[in-house]
Structures are given as C-alpha cells and as structure tokens.
Amino acid sequence: MSAYGLLTSTKEPVPLRSGSVALLLRGFVADVACELRYRNEEPGPVETVFVFPLDAEAAVYAFQALLGGTRVEAQLREKEQARELYGDALVGGQTSFLLEEAGAGGDVFSCSLGNLPPGAEAALTLRYVCELPREPDGAARFVLPIVLRPRYAPQGWAGEDVIQGVPRAPPGELPYTLSLSATLESPHGVERVVSNCPLTPLSYPGGDQSSAQVSLAQQPPWDRDVELLVYYVEPHKPSAVLEAGLPGAEPGSLMGDPAVMVTLLPNLPEVGPGRSVAGEFIFLLDRSGSMDCAMDACADSPRRIDIAKETLVLLLKSLPLGCYFNIYGFGSQFEYFYPRSVEYTQQTMAESLQHVQQLRADLGGTEILAPLRAIYRSPCQDGHPRQLFVFTDGEVCNTQEAIGEVQRHRGSHRCFSFGIGEGASTALIKGIARAGGGSAEFITGQDRMQPKALQSLKRALQPAVSSVALSWDLPPGMEAALLGPAPEVIFSGQRCLVYAQLRGQPQPPGAAVGGVTLQYRIQEQSYKETLPFPLQPQAGDRLPVHRLAAKALLLELEGAMSAGEEGARHRALEASLSSGVVCSLTAYVGVDAAQGQPVQGPLMRRDVPLAASVPPFSMPSRRFVSLVPSNDICVVDWSPILKRDNVLERPEITDSYDNLIEEHSCHASAFQPHTKSSLGLHLPQKCLSWLRSIPQRLWGRPQHNGSKSSDLGALPEPAPQKDQATEESPLLRLVSLQNADGSWDFGPQLVVALGVSETDARGRMPSEDVVPGVWATVLAVVWLHGRAAGQRDEWELLEAKAVVWVQDRAGPWLSECLEAANALLGCSVGPAVFGL
Predict the structure, then answer these.
(1) 786: alpha, beta or left, given left = phi > 0 and alpha = psi -120 to 50?
(2) Measured between alpha carbons, how far is 257 from 260 in angstroms, rounded to an integer?
(3) Which regions in the chain score pLDDT beneath 70?
(4) N or C, where is the chain less crowded by C-beta within 10 Å?
C-alpha cells in the first residue's frame, strides 16, 4: 500500500518492514487479508502511523495483532471511546493499535501502532470484503488501492485533511515491500487472469478449473493501483447465495439470522437504434491542473484532458436530435457553455465542438460542489429527464457534502460518474453515482474512457425502469427484510445486487427452496424475473454476505446522516457495532494485556512514508507570481495562487516553503513583515535554486520589472500543446465530420478521412440520382464497420443515427450504394447493417 504526491522523504527510521495481501475471490466477492509487519530498531519505544486508501464500499470487519507471540483481537468501539482506550494504553506503557476511517470520505484509513518496544516485532492484520464490479466483457475486476493523492480542500473548508503532512519517499527508497497472492474460486471454472502488473502463471491445484491460484511475480510499481481482471466460465448467470448467521449471535439480529445476496441481471429490451427517447444531458468535466497529466507512466501516454475531450466529441455526436444538453468545466471555479441547457441542433453541436477543442486543464483546484449546486438550480426541461455525467480524477475533502447534494436531487435526475486515473476517489465516484441512481466507472492505465462513457450514454438513452418491486417466495414462518436500499434504477446489462435478512424458521421444517421475484415496468410493458435459491445456508467464519449487507446498510444510513435525518446516527452506530463493520462513527482498538512501563515524555512518532511522484499540475498561462526586485529583496506574491488554487496547501509547495523559511530565518534582514501570501526575502543562490526547482507549470509567466528579475532564470510561457489524441485518431477524424442528424456531407475532408481519392469516390457513386449525402453517409458507415470494428462501443450510437437517416432518404439506391462502398473501401459489410 502506498500513495501519490510529493514531499521530501522521511529522515527518521520507519518500523514498517513489509505488507502482504492474501485474496480469496469467490465469483464477484473478494475477501481480503492485509498483513503489515513492523520492527522497531530504535533505542526507545515508538508510535507508527500508516495512512492508506481503501475502496469506499469495502466492509472492514476484523483487525488483530501478533505481538511477541501473543495474538490480540481488536474490538470495535465508538470512535471517541476507541481513541481514549488507545491513548490511555499508551500512557500506561502498553502496546496498543487503532484502525479508523480517516477524514470524511470513507475511502482512507489510518492504522496506528503505539508503544512498540525497542527490538520488538508486530504483525497487524486487517480484513475486509468487497463486491467486484463486472466489466462489459464479463470479467470480475479487483483493485488493490495503492495510489493515494492529496485531497483538495476547497476555500473555506474547515475539516481535517488527513493526507496533508504524510511524508513521501521516492518509490525506490520506500523502507517496506508489498506482496500479493490470490485464490480464485468459481463452480463454473476460472478461465484466466489479466493484470496491470506481472503475475506468476495461473495454477489449478485441485486438478480442475473450479479453483486457481496466482501471485504477483515482482514488486508492483508504486505509481498505479494493482488490478486483476478475472475471467470466469459463464459469468453472466444470475445467482443467490444464502449464508448462515454468526454462531452465538442473538436470533433476529443482523448477524444472528441467515442473510441472502441475490445477483439479478435483468434482460431489458432496448429502444430501436437511432430512435432513442430524448432527454437533457449535462456533462460536468474536471479541468483542474491534475487533468493535464498522462493516464499512465508510459512516455507516449495521452493526457487525461485530451482523452476527456475526445470522449466529449463522441458523446456530442451520439446525442439524439431534439434533446437538450450543456457542458460544464470545474476547478477552483466553474464555467459552462450555456447559461441553461440548449436544444441539440446542428448549430449548437458545431458551436460546442469548437469550445471542446479549446478546453484546457487550467481551472486550478477541484471544487465540485459549486458546479453541482449550479446545475441543480437550473430548471429541468419538461419531458426531458435529466442525465448528469461527471468526469473527474480528483480527491476532495468535502466528499460527503457533494454526495449529499446529489442525494437531495435524486428524484429529478440520474448521475453517471467516471473516475479518471490512479487514485481517483472511490468515495466520491461511487457515492454520487449511488446517490443519483446511476453507475460508476473507473478508467486507469490502458483503459479507454470512450467505450465506458458511450455505454453509459446508451443506458441513459433507454426508457427509465419504473415500478421496481421485489417479492419473496418463502415457506410459512419465514420472512425477508431488505438490508440497504431497494433498487430504484436498473439498466440493461447491469448487475442488480440485493441483500436481505431471512427471519424465522420454515414451517414445517426442512423446506428446501426459496425464491425472489423482480418485477418492473418499462413504459407500458411489465416484466418479471424469478430466481430460486436453496434454503440450506453456507456456513463459515468470515460471513462475507453479512458484512457486505451491513456495509450497504451503513452507506444508506450515513447518507441519511448527511441529510440530517433524525435517528440515523443511532441506527448506524448500532449496525456497525453489531456487525463488526467499521463506519465513520466507529474504530477498531486493541490493547496488549501485558502491563508495560509508564511512558516518560512523549513517544517518538514515525509516520510511514508513501511513494512520491511529481504530479504534473498545469496552471493557467496568465501571471500568478510577481517576482519584483527591490534592491536586494525579491517579493514573491503568492496571493493569486492562494485565492485560486490553495497551492500552499499542496505538499510539494508547502514542504519546500517551510524548509526555506527554517533555513533562512536566522537572517534578521531577510524577511519583511509579510504573511505567507507575500514573502520578502534575500535571494541567495540556494533560494534561487529553490524557486527554479518548482515545476514551471505551477508558476505561469512572471512579470519582469527591471533587469534583476532575469537573475531568476527564464520561466517562459508554456508552449501550446497539441491535441494529439484528436490528430492521431482516424476514428475521431471521421466522427468529427458527422452532422447532428447523423449524416455526413460529401467533400474533400470526408474522402481524406476515408483514405480514398475524391475522384475515385465520385466515380464509384452508383448514379447521379443518388443524393451526395446518402452516398457519403453509406461510405462512412461502411468505413466504421470495416476499419474500426474493434472500437464499436465508441461509434455504435452515432452509427445508429446515420443508418436511420440513410433508411429515410436512400430510396431504391441503398443496396447499390452499399455494394459500391464495399468495393471502394475494400470491405465486406453485409446488408443487415442497413436493415436490408
């Protein structure tokens, strides 16, 4: 486990020596055990603190320590009580350990180990269980979070930033290692495993494919999360798992009764291609400085902002005529294309595409709450259900406020969210999607954003599922109580997970089968799906279904707490303590019963360093910093940065700044009576070197006032960066020429995009009676099928518009146009594409 950011590496010994992760993946559920090994090689006792990321929907359910051969189980307590127990143990000289959610997001944890004696070793193990998302190709995706970026604190934020101040070290100098091993189980068989890190060969110890094992072959790179894509045989089948309750727990309680997890895959009919219902589509794009960095560590990897712009082009081209749309960009401030959503026409589409090409990652920080509020203040369009698409790579401190804002307006819209790059907040991305009844996607490494965004748009264009109801077929004497919210929105091809507690005993005893039925309506049509499940529950000590059910319930209750619902806090605390699943109100604490010596003076605290990397922030090109020489004093005016971007809250500036102050504070004449926002100081060579060392894209262009300013060295205006993704993508070249109604115009630009000569294209036209636009559109559709078949998910919607347009206008010439287009482009596209 590690993180992302830039601070100087810690100069103190850190007792964390290694981390090892053991996975048990059963279908689409992961049970994870993380062991952290410590050794104190200092002359006195220490307290070590490790801050690490975790999926916001993961259910942490156990924490234990091995201390000098003694195993100590931590107990879940109310958070303040746990902290008091931990502190009292430290004062009394006892070794103690604490695990809690850090901050308000729910996706960062803090692990503290206090009073580790000199020469002593300790092994801390935390366990959690999480659901695995299903990829479009059916793979189960497991992510071990490693990247942990600093949270952006909006102006006026008064909460705690748990990331700020955590020491960083170059990846090659981290004092600990990481290993991972996985056991994969499926009754239908494990086919293969793909990862973004090198793996050992997949092995099947049982002789069949129902169980497999794999491990990391080497240390993972510290600049990316570790991802496993597990491909099972027959992954699309619905399922139901019934799990026995915890032995000894009170019958009727959350943990005492059996719990069932039902996975439903509704087979929803789709609206005909190109004839989707209208709506209002609002695209909210992160334009903070970090969007200027590459998607991964590869030298030729495109920038996140370029990928987002290409995605916006495809989304705009895929919208149906007559819908409404708008595009917002946000950073420390927000901008929009139109004061309110406009009708989708050829003119508004063309205007918007020009604006998209000019977008830059130049809005500073990551303040998402203000644009969300502005969007919700804008009135909805009658007859056009609102669909919000959020694209961000950010982490923010006020995650719960943003989720609460979406939650308050869930009755009037759906929210689809996309986390870009390593370290995007799972709490924010999943939270707003869950609150808005939509879906969440994450784009990392070599993933392409475009197909995921277009698939979400495809879902959004379908009629909304309504009147969702669940009914249970259980023997007399038994009833089912839902844990967590009932499904409100279900998309075609999307999993629907339902958790329920089964109460009572069947009468007569021995009933073998129960069932659950999902009923829903699409427009005027009703649908029903039933799934039977055996009533003989699976026994075990980890109870993953119960833990996941408890987490689903806790997420709902914490959302109610944010909305100020009365009694929600009490119910959340009770559910957390009874289930053993950590929430924002509770923490795990363990104390070694062996009495130690009372501590004399404060313990030496050792923060475990996290991996450092320079985040390529990109600031606006206008002047931020005035380098104004006055005799031998240079006034560095920080105030514009402070007002816009909270740069002094960034560790890469704050740490260097504080070091500079400390190193030069002995010079009485060095400082004028300024605050941090305007610092006057002598500029010895070391200071000049420090100023030059800050990445130039953090500064913008300086204002030169006199010759002495040139002593700082050149800080030139950043050269305009080309949109490489736009220039290099043949698909985007063709798509950018499409009209809003789905057609293409015949002309020089089109034939260049198709890779043919204009003379040949005109010569192959079947007849002079063929409308040039029809011929051009048939050519474009054939090119898509013949030359970009591997990117079908990206052009499927816009191609459907084109086909409908051609069918309405081609008349008797459509077959001849298709045959001629195949001959010209060297393709073999069948007549079924055009409904022939």
Answers:
(1) alpha
(2) 10
(3) 1-13, 104, 148-165, 171-172, 236, 266-277, 297-299, 464-466, 488-489, 491-494, 523, 595-602, 610, 612-728
(4) C
Distance (Å) of CA 44 to CA 274, 603, 795: 71, 8, 64
The tokens 């605390």 sit on which residue?
573
Phi, psi of 357, deg, nearest 5: -65, -20
Domain ranges of the chain: 16-146+170-232+580-591, 280-460, 627-712, 729-834
Residue type (1 letter), 801: K
Check if the beta carbon of residue 137 is closer than 8 Å to that of residue 460: no
Asked if 92 and 617 count as a contact pair (C-beta separation under 8 A), the reply is no
Q: Are 717 and 667 in contact (CB under 8 A)?
A: no
Q: What is the DSSP string of 387-419?
A: EEEEEE---BTTHHHHHHHHHHTGGGEEEEEEE
Angle at 170 between CA 164 and CA 176, to 5 degrees: 90
- Residues 619 and 607: their CA atoms lie apart, in Å, by 31
Q: What is the pLDDT of residue 708?
A: 29
This prediction has a pTM of 0.72
* SS3 assignment, position 301: coil
Q: Which token pair is 660? A: 């500079």
Question: Exposed, middle or buried, 272 (CB in 10 Å: 0-12/13-18/19+)?
Answer: exposed
List Cβ<8 Å contacts ≥24 apart for 245-254: 245/537, 245/543, 245/546, 246/543, 246/546, 252/503, 253/578, 254/483, 254/501, 254/546, 254/549, 254/550, 254/553, 254/575, 254/578, 254/579
Secondary structure string (H, E, C) spanning 117-170: CCCCEEEEEEEEEEECCECCCCCEEEEECCCCCCCECCCCCCCCCCCCCCCEEC
Residue 153: both structure tokens together: 């604190």
- Tell me, what DSSP letter sits at residue 710? G
Instruction: Report how far residue 4's alpha carbon sits from residue 162's, in angstroms, rounded to the nearest whole number.
Output: 14
CATH (residue range 280-460): 3.40.50.410
Instruction: Please say whether the beta carbons of 57 and 555 come within 8 A.
Output: yes
Output phi, psi for 437, to 5 deg.
70, 25
The β-bridge partners of 34 are 21, 126
Helix (H, G, I), strand (E, B) or coil at 667: coil
Is the bond leading into 508 cis (omega within 30 degrees of zero)? yes
Cα dihedral 752/754/760/766 (nearest 10):
-130
Q: What is the model's pLDDT at position 162?
A: 60
At the fourth CATH level, which superfamily is domain 16-146+170-232+580-591? tricorn interacting facor f3 domain (2.60.40.1730)
Residue 380 and residue 134 in contact, taking contact as beta carbons nearer than 8 Å: no
Can you tell me the distance from the alpha carbon of 168 to that of 579, in angstroms, rounded to the nearest whole number? Answer: 35
